[in-house]
Amino acid sequence: MDTATEKSVIVGSMEPSSQLSRNITMPLNSKTYLRQIEHRMRHQLIALFCLITFVAPPTARACSRVLYTAKDGMVITGRSMDWGSDMMSDMWVLPRGMRRDGMGGTNTIHWESKYGSLIVAAYNMATCEGMNEKGLVVNMLALVESDYGTPPQGQKVICISTWAQYMLDHFATVAEAVTEMEKENFQVQTTVMPTGKTANMHLSLSDAGGDSAIFEYVKGKLVIHHGKNARVMTNSPVYDKQIAIQEYWQDAGSLMGFLPGTPRATDRFARALVYLDAIPTETKSAYITGVPEQKFQFQAMMSVLSVMRSVGTPLGITIEDQPYTSSTIWRTVSDSTHRVVLFDSAMAPATFWVKLENLNFEAGAPVQKLELAGGKTYSANAAGKFIDEKLFDFAPLH
Q1: Which position among 154, 161, 325, 362 has the lowest Cβ density within 10 Å, counted as fewest Cβ atoms?
Q2: pTM of the predicted model, to two decimals?
């Protein structure tokens, strides 16, 4: 289990988060006392999770993201897209050298893409995730508590529909992105989706070195959590509270212990964390004979996919009094080391992958699309199935 220290950076001024842990002194020779303390803390933390779960504001969107690092250094990011309806997603190949408009209106930023990328679009109006040719992976997940604030007069802005693409276009590593975002050269602003709901999101990055960062706008200020320990992410609550849940489950969680099973974000977080720590980080002799070419990289990708499937919500489930419970509609597993993205549909019988080495990211190359909307299915390496297509228009600020 990775022991790197996570660093939280608050850009701007915010109230300090409350401390959820305290030092406890106890007689070291008292096993009974230790058991009593552990029992009491377990119940207190479970009560806290219940409180967080029931008071979290409702949202119609839900997703999960995990970051896996093998003993040999291979890095894989898994994510599930949980949504209340068909997002009509397609995959796109975007070459280097494309000029972008941040769709922020009068004070929008503009840029030219430094790196090519393979993305998954939401409603063909926004980049919701992807991997660039350097292995940087971006995932956007719903966060209803997002508050992007009001930019000062003259401040440069970017629409949230292009935020993920900005990351893929500019950076090879997480550290580069964190350094640049800390400068606050622009402020993210949101828009309204075709569902009529505001696009309230937080964004995660991971790279081929196993580094990770999570970016949130809370009370109008940008909050950055940077470090290899930022491995699991869901939706509400804000990430500093998810860290408290992580600390508890790293101590108390186990495959043989209590694991919450509901589709709520906090429960999915707990399951994803425990399963992520349980899957093998090296070749598993009991299964490798059934893996293609008996290669560990394929075993690892399927292990991460298994985690994402385990935290999914069955297709078609809706709960009237819980509009924030959404079905899983697709999943991705992104291997930053080998530059491979696996797509697993939950709406169609389709699991395939795309090798970035088979795509053309050269400046001036055509934009290409792999149509997924409408139940299209593919198998094996689908890199050769992309066709030239005009890029969709990113959504502007509402």
Answers
A1: 154
A2: 0.85
* Res 54 pLDDT > 70: no
Surface-to-core class of residue 70, CB atoms within 10 Å of its CB (0-12 exposed, 13-18 middle, 19+ buried): buried
Q: Which string of DSSP letters, residue by residue, matches 357-394? A: GGS---TTPPPEEE--TTT---EEE-GGG-EE-PPPPP
Q: Domain span at residue 166? A: 28-388
Name the packing angle between helices 239-252 and 265-278 (round to 10°).
50
156/215 Cα distance (integer angstroms): 18
d(CA 157, CA 160): 9
State the total domains in the chain. Answer: 1
Residue 4 lies in a domain: no
CA–CA gap between residue 293 and residue 289 (Å, rounded): 8
Burial of 275 (0-12, 13-18, 19+ CB in 10 A): buried
Q: Which region among 12-26, 187-201, 202-216 has the lowest average model confidence (pLDDT)?
A: 12-26
Element (H, E) at 111: strand 110-112
Q: Active site residue: 50, 63, 128, 159, which one? A: 63
For residue 164, which of 198, 194, 199 has the smallest C-alpha distance?
199
* pLDDT tens profile 59-109: 445 789 999 999 999 999 999 999 888 999 999 999 999 999 999 999 999
Instruction: Give the number of other CB atoms < 10 A from CB of residue 259.
Output: 16
Q: How many residues does the chain have?
A: 398
Cα separation, 250 vs 5, in Å, equals 14
CATH number of the CATH domain containing 251: 3.60.60.10
How far does CA 18 lie from the centroid of its chain? 25
> What is the C-alpha to C-alpha distance for residues 71 and 329, in angstroms, rounded to an integer?
31
Read off the tokens for 391.
């890029």
Structure tokens at 247: 């600390």
